[in-house]
Write a structure and sequence with these properties.
By secondary structure, the chain is α/β, with parallel strands linked by helices. Helix content is about 35%, strand content about 25%.
């Protein structure tokens, strides 16, 4: 394929296209002589919009068809919300670059209440994520958690129609699409630990496509790449996907890598937490070590009790 042209594969949602077009603009800025195009690819996760993610989950729910196009050389790179990207990639593909992270926190969105703690007993909260559900119920087991699917605008519309008292979304998506003003509370990571890779974009490419790999280096943010390496190592060791409420957040402080991690039962009655730190060079080992700590502290029965696949954490 002529490397004077780069084709980006993306899902067709407004958020996915915003992210793909941001990558397009960055590449065009760095390489003005190259034509960059975005091609929309429908994934399984875009087809089954009514069922909970935990029921239709599987390996690469939001990435499989895009990766097939990449392997067939129909596209040159794929742009993913990194939390959707499986930790084990198909042979021949690699995570070529990771963007600088947006706000990693989860957002509490409501038209009536300012904070999660202010919700009345039995309030209805919408989320598609078992990770969010489990941690919210650990904080407030009186709440009525109901499934919420659809693109970001659809979810906000359902809230505005009065179907929910509040909904939980990612701050990053709301910020990127200009809905940051809808956020009532940016929930601290100590209360609700984020999804693996939340807030970052992952650029996937063919492992042997050296020209494309070299061009993507300009998009790779070192600090974010280090932190998500630790998080993805945690998820890979635990073997969890959308069916298991696994959370992890790593950050750099005083030239040390810090990390929180959580595994919780779906009903929020059993929550296992672990925290550790390491040098920046030991990100992979930190994630694996925290996974072992979680298993030792009691996460093994939680992980083992649910059907799991080595998928991403789409929520």
């Amino acid at each position: 394929m002529d490397k004077s042209t780069l084709i980006i594969g993306s899902r067709g949602s407004k958020l996915a296209l915003f992210q793909a077009n941001w990558v397009k603009s960055q590449l065009e800025s760095h390489y003005p002589r190259i034509e960059v195009r975005v091609e929309i690819i429908k994934t399984s996760g875009d087809v089954f919009l009514d069922s909970p993610l935990s029921q239709i989950g599987g390996k690469g729910l939001f990435t499989k068809e895009i990766e097939e196009a990449l392997l067939a050389s129909k596209i040159d790179l794929a742009v993913h919300s990194l939390k959707d990207l499986p930790t084990v990639l198909p042979d021949g593909l690699c995570l070529a670059a990771v963007s600088q992270r947006e706000d990693v926190r989860d957002a509490f969105v409501s038209n009536q209440f300012d904070r999660l703690a202010e919700l009345p007993l039995g309030a209805c909260v919408g989320t598609s994520s078992l990770r969010r559900q489990s941690q919210v119920l650990a904080l407030r087991n009186d709440l009525d958690i109901r499934n919420l699917r659809g693109n970001l605008e659809t979810r906000l519309h359902k809230l505005d129609q009065g179907q929910y008292d509040a909904i939980l979304l990612a701050c990053a998506g709301l910020n990127r699409l200009g809905f940051g003003n809808r956020i009532r509370e940016r929930i601290p990571v100590e209360q609700i630990c984020p999804a693996i890779g939340q807030g970052a974009l992952g650029m996937e490419a063919r492992s042997r496509d050296v020209p494309t790999l070299e061009k993507l280096r300009c998009l790779d943010h070192r600090e974010t790449h280090i932190t998500v390496t630790a998080e993805r190592a945690l998820l890979r060791r635990l073997g969890g996907g959308c069916q298991v409420p696994i959370a992890g957040h790593a950050w750099i402080q005083d030239e040390r890598l810090q990390m929180l991690s959580v595994v919780a039962s779906v009903n929020g009655q059993h929550v296992v937490r672990a925290r550790d730190s390491a040098s920046l060079e030991d990100a992979e080992q930190l994630g694996s070590r925290l996974a072992e700590s979680l298993l030792t502290k009691g996460a093994r029965p939680i992980v083992g009790a649910l059907s799991i696949t080595p998928a991403g954490q789409s929520d």
